[in-house]
Amino acid sequence: SLITFVLIGVLILSEIRYYADTELQFEYLVDTNITGKIKLNIDMTIAMKCHHIGADVLDQTGQDVFSFGQLQEEPVFWELNPDEEEYRNMFREHNEYLTKQYHALQDILWKSKDIQLKAKFPKRKAHSSKKEPDSCNIYGSFELNKVAGNFHITAGKSIPVIPKGHAHLAMMMDVSDYNFSHRIDHFSIGDEARGIIYPLDGTEIVTAYSHHSFQYFMQIVPTEIRTYSTNMNTYQFAVTEK
């Protein structure tokens, strides 16, 4: 009868849906690939002019700092226009909500094809002011070794020091030139993947003290994602700011 065929159709569709669905299973293993590389992706703005700051990496290998790659620098204004400010606030609140209040969304985030937590900050519009830009947008990627190290942005451009290491020259800077207020539009490690929360995205910290320094301590976890729609290796991280 017609009812029988309808019931059979419903059962077939439910079985297909069950087969296509992804059941999450989390396993914790030691990462034995110590010779591999890690990609660091960054897009942030520092409230200092580009010629006053330098960004580079130091790690336990003592590798030449300039071999990791170079980030791009673009002079910008610290102040955002109303549309940019609205977008940044919306994304920051969204990220804080997920990281601090509603962890039960993880199944939806990992399995969804449509939800993407990282949204590229819109291209900034030309500023109406005729003044010189007062800040620097630093963006791009580094290839890092799988060892302990630090990525730092500090006053002065870096120069190589023989036999190893580097130094930042800031002798010509005035006290008023220092301002490490910063805005992080994006910070991730490895290839970007749906379902991963990037805890630093949307961060903004402002200081009135010229020599105030900020430190972020990270613990990085290699992550293998295997679903019916995704098959990739990437990284997640936990962060503490001091």
Structure characterization notes:
- With about 240 residues, the chain is α+β, with helices and mostly antiparallel strands.
- It has one domain (about 35-240).
- Helices cover about 20% and strands about 35% of the residues.
- The protein has helices at about 1-20, 80-100, 105-110, and strands spanning about 35-45, 55-60, 70-75, 135-145, 150-155, 155-160, 165-170, 180-190, 205, 215-225, 230-240.
- The strands form four sheets. The chain has a five-stranded antiparallel beta sheet with strand order 3-4-1-8-9, with no helix packed on it.
- It starts with a helix and ends with a strand.
- The model has no long low-confidence stretch (mean pLDDT about 80).
Average pLDDT works out at 78
Physical arrangement of strands within the biggest beta sheet: 3-4-1-8-9
- Secondary structure class reads alpha+beta
| Helix-strand string | HEEEHHEEEEEEEE
Biggest pleated sheet: 5 strands, antiparallel
The parts where pLDDT drops under 50 for at least 5 residues are: none
Terminal-residue CA separation: 71 Å
What's the helix count?
Answer: 3
Give the quaternary arrangement of the chains: single chain
Number of domains: 1
Subcellular location: Endoplasmic reticulum-Golgi intermediate compartment membrane
Protein name: Endoplasmic reticulum-Golgi intermediate compartment protein 2
Membrane topology: Multi-pass membrane protein
Main location: endoplasmic reticulum
